[in-house]
Amino acid sequence: MHQISIDLEIILSGKWHSGSGEGGFLTDRLIRRDSRNRPYVPASTLRGVVREQCERLSRTLELPKCSDPHSRDGKCHQPVSHLRSPVDQLFGTKYTPSTLFFQDAKLQEQPLVSTMTINRTAMYRALGTGRDKHLFQTEYANSAVLGTKIRGWHEDLATLDEESLPVGYVLLLLGLQSVDRLGGDKSTGKGSCELQVNNVVYNQQTWSWEEWTSNIQDNLELWDDILEMEGI
After folding, report:
1. CA atoms within 13 A on the CB side of 135
2. Span 129-143, average pLDDT
3. Whole-structure pTM value
């Protein structure tokens, strides 16, 4: 059994928008707020961004390709122990539930974050021109520091021995480190951020981020051996 617990902060350095899917009387796109009326980033948004980064890193490192959720070849029905991709092992597939859990990212102990409303117009991407009669208003929150936690329990992850870092957890930590945008309107430069890992506990042993990063390269060099041993 592999267990991991990660505490991290999301440092949003500029305007950001985590949409609620709702509009108001004066604003078309409102930000998502918690029960205390404070802006936050839902766990599903963070999970999606981190998974996307892990998929990109997996392709870059030439790890086994993750399954296609729309495929009908039956590979998505395999048990976790038979999944070849560390992304699938971490995040699950269409028919295999994940045991990696994200919490909503909420404001730390700090003054309330101010918000602003910006007028925008829909664009023709190919032409780079504005669309006629497509003016709308979007609500943004200013810079903030959000805190969240990630917890995971996995029975089958590729690893050399009990003391080695599983491939999937290396990929997860690297994916967290590579996230630089969060929320909506990323293509327009909004949501610039940095994810800062404050605490990592693997199998009840606490590691600092510096200790993890100092061992990442060594573990990366072992991946070929791990994959060969696992028959991947």
Report:
1. 5
2. 72
3. 0.81
- Helices (H) and strands (E) counted in the chain, each on its own, are 5, 8
Neighbours of 170 (CB within 10 A): 24
Pair 17, 27: CB distance under 8 Å: no
Interval 21-69: pLDDT, tens: 655 555 656 888 888 888 999 999 999 999 999 999 888 877 778 877 6
Spatial separation of the C-alpha atoms in residues 214 and 137, rounded to whole Å: 46
- Count: domains in the chain: 1
CA gap 186, 177 in Å, rounded: 17
Q: Which domain holds residue 133?
A: 2-230
Q: What is the pLDDT of residues 73-122, one digit of tens each?
A: 555 555 555 667 888 888 887 777 888 999 999 987 766 788 777 666 66
Q: Which residue is listed with tokens 């560390």? A: 86
Sequence-separated (6 or more) residues with CB below 8 Å from residue 218: none
146 or 205, higher pLDDT: 146
> What's at 61, amino acid-wise?
L
What is the token pair recorded at 212?
Answer: 């993890």
Q: What are phi and psi of 26, to 5 degrees?
A: -110, -15
Those residues with Cβ within 8 angstroms of residue 77's Cβ, 6 or more apart along the chain or in another chain? 95, 96
String of DSSP letters for 110-177: SPPPPEEEEEEEEEETTTTEEEEEEEEEEEEE-SEEEEEEEEEEES----SSTTSPPHHHHHHHHHHH
